[in-house]
Design brief:
Chain lengths: 460, 335
Amino acid sequence: MDLDPLVLSRIQFAFVVSFHAIFPVFTIGLASYIALIYGLAFKTNNPKWERLGAFWTQVFAVVFGMGVVSGIVMSFQFGTNWSNFALATSNFLGPILSYEVVTAFFLEAAFLGVLLFGRGKVPNGVHFFAALMVSIGTFISSFWILSANSWMQTPAGVEMRDGFYHVIDWSAAIFNDSFWYRFSHMALASFLTGGFVVAGVSAWFIIEKRDTELHRKALSMTLWLLLIIAPLQIFVGDMHGLNTLKHQPTKVAAMEANWETQKNVPLLLFAIPDQEAQKNHFEVGIPSMASLILTHEWDGEVPGIKEMPRDQQPNVPVVFWSFRIMVAMGVLMVLFAITGLILRKNKAYARNRWFLQGLRLMSLAPFVAVLSGWFVTEVGRAPYLVYGQMTQAEALTPSLTGGMALFTLIGYIAVYACVFAAGAYYLTRVIRAGTEAAEQHDDEKHRAKRPLSAAEADFD
Amino acid sequence: MSEPIFDLTYVWAAIIAFGVIMYVLMDGFDLGQGILFMFAPSEHDRDIMMNSVAPVWDGNETWLVLGGAGLLAAFPLVYSIFLPALYIGVFLLLAGLIFRGVAFEFRFKAHTSRYLWNWAFAIGSTVAAFAQGAVVGAYIQGFETENMRYVGGALDWLSPFTVLTGLGLVAGYALLGATWLVMKSEGSTQQWAYRLVKPLLAAVLLIFAIISIWTPFVDPFVSERWFSHITPIWLLPILALACAFWLYRSIQAKREGTPFIATMGMFIFTYLGLLASKWPYVVPPNYTLSQAASAHESQLFLLLGLLFVIPIVLVYTAWTYWVFRGKVKADQGYH
C-alpha cells in the first residue's frame, strides 16, 4: 500500500489541532469567569468568592499548561508539513502568528504570575485587575489565530507576486470578510465551554454535598449567563452560516447534503450522503426548511454540491454529520439553559438530581460542539487551504514522504496519549480536592512561577 | 515597487541571532540539569538540581518559540527549508521538550511514580539537546534545495558529522548545567558538580577540536573564509579557548560564580565563530539573508510590536532571576 503524505499530513494536523483546541477554548471562557468571580470578591469583600476564585484558578493553571505544551507543536506544523503554504503566505501569516506568540508571552510575563501566585500578596484590586488582563489577553490571542484562519477562508488585502502573497492592506487582510463572524462564534463558544464546565462541576459538588451553598450560588449565576449566551450563539451561528453561503457556497451545500442547485430545499434530519453516487440515501427532512433558513424565503434557491466537479468537492458525509452533531449539541445547551430557568422556583435546579446529573454530562457538550464545528469549516473548505487560491496538495511540503508523515503521526499520538493522560488524571485530582483545599495555601509550593505549581493537589 | 528607505533585514537578523544565543545559554543550563540528572548520586541532589532551574526554565523556552515565530515572519525561507529538512529531528526535539516540561510539573507532585518522571526529564532533556546539536551540524552541512524548496531526503540531517555536533551540544549543555549547579548549590551536591566540570570540559574541547578540523572539509566555503588570509575572526576561537582556560583556573581555585560565566563565554565566542563562518548565508549553500527575508512591510509590521515587548520580557526575565538568586537549599522547594 502506498502511504499518501497528503492524507497523513491532514490526519496529523487534524489530530494535533483538535487536541490543542480543547484547551484554549476552555481557558478563554474560564479566564472571563475567574475575572468575574474576583470582581465580585473585590466588590463584596466576601471570602467565599475568593475561595471559589482560587479553586477555578487552579483548574485554569493546569489546563493553561496543557494548552501551552500542545501549542508549541502547532507553531512548527506549518513548516514541517505545509512548507509551500508557509512560504507563500509568510508575509501575512508570519507577523500575525508572531503577534499571537508575543501577546501570549506578554500576558504570561506581566499578569499570569500575579493571578496565579499573587493572592494575599497583592491588594485585592490589583489581583482582580490581573485576572481581568489575563482574560482580555486570552481574547487577543484568539483574535490573531482566528484572523489567520479567517484569512485562509476568505483571503483579502493581499496580492500575489512571484509565488508570494504580499500584504497591500493590513486592515483588509486582518479584518477579512469572515473574521467577525468566526471570532464572535468562537468567543461565544468559549463562554459556553467555560459555563457548562463550571455548571457541571458545581452540580457534582452539590450532589456530593460539599461546600454546597457556594456551588449553588456559582451554579445559579452560571445558569443565568448560559440562558443569555446559548440562544445568542444560535443566532450568531446562523449569521456565520449565511456569511459562509456567500463566500463558500459549496461548504454550505455539503453541510445540507444538497447535491443539486434547486429551490424548496428540505432541511435533512437524517441522510446517508453517498459521494460516489452523488446523492443521498434514506433522506428524512422537513420540506423547504433549508431554503427558508439559508435564504429566508420558502422557495429560495440553494446552490448544490454538484456545482463543483467531483475532485473539488469536500467530504460530504463528514461535513454533513459534523454539522448535525454541532447543532444537536447547541440545541441541547439551549434546552438545559431553559430548564434551568424553569427550575428557578424554590431553587429546584440545585435539588433536582436528574438536572444535576444531566449538567455533569453536559460539561462535555461544548467540547463536542466546538470540535465538530471546526470539522465542518475545515473539512468543508477542501480541497483548498487558501480558499479558491491554494489547494492542500499545492501547500504540502514537497520533500515529505508517506513514511515520514506516518512516523510523526504515530509519534504525536503516542506523546499526547502519555502526556495528556497524566494531565487529565491530574485535573480530576485538582477538582476532587475541591474548594476546601483551595483555601489552604502552602506558600513553599509556590516558588516556581509556572502554571501548574499554582495547583495544590498531589499527583499520586 | 519602491525600495524601502531602510533595510530591516539586518535588524531582524540581529534580533533572531540574539534570540538564539539567549535560548542556547538559558535553556542550555536547564537542559544540562536533565542530561546530568540520572548521574546524580542521590534523590536529594536531584531535588536540588530541579529546584535550581524550576522557577526559570519555561521562561527560558519562550525564546525558542519566539525565535520560531520570528523566523516565519522575518526569514520564511529558513523556516520553510529547515523544518522539512529536519522533519524527524524537529519531532524528536518537540517530543523531548514536551516530556521534560511535563516532568517538571509532575515530579514535585508525584510520590510513587517519581522515578518515571525522573527518567522522562532525563531522556527528554538529552534527546532535545542532541536534536539541537544535530540542527547546528545540518546547518553547517548545508541543505539540498531547488527553486526555494528542500529536495533532500528524510535523514540527510543525520550524518556522522551531525551526530558529532549533537554529542558536542549534549556535552556543552552538561558543562553549562554543571557550572550552573556549582553556582547554585552547596555541600555534597556542589562537590559533585565540581568534580564533573573538568571531565566535561575535556570532552567538550575534544569534540569541538574534531568539529573544527572536520568543518572545513564538510564545507569549502568555511575553509575559504578561515584559511585564505589573515582575518580578525581568528580572535573568536582564541577567545573561546581563553574562556576554557579561565574556566579551568576558576575550578582549580574553587570559585563559585566564575565557572558559569566562563562557560557562557565559551558558548558565545563559539557561536560568533559559527556565524562568522557562514555569513551571509542563512540557508547554506544557496541562500543569503536578503534572499531568505520576507517583504519589508511584513518585517516592519511585526517589528513595531516586538520593540515594545522584548524589553518587557527582558526586564521580567531579569527580575525573575533576581528574585530566585542565591543558593538553592533542599528544604525550600516543593516536595
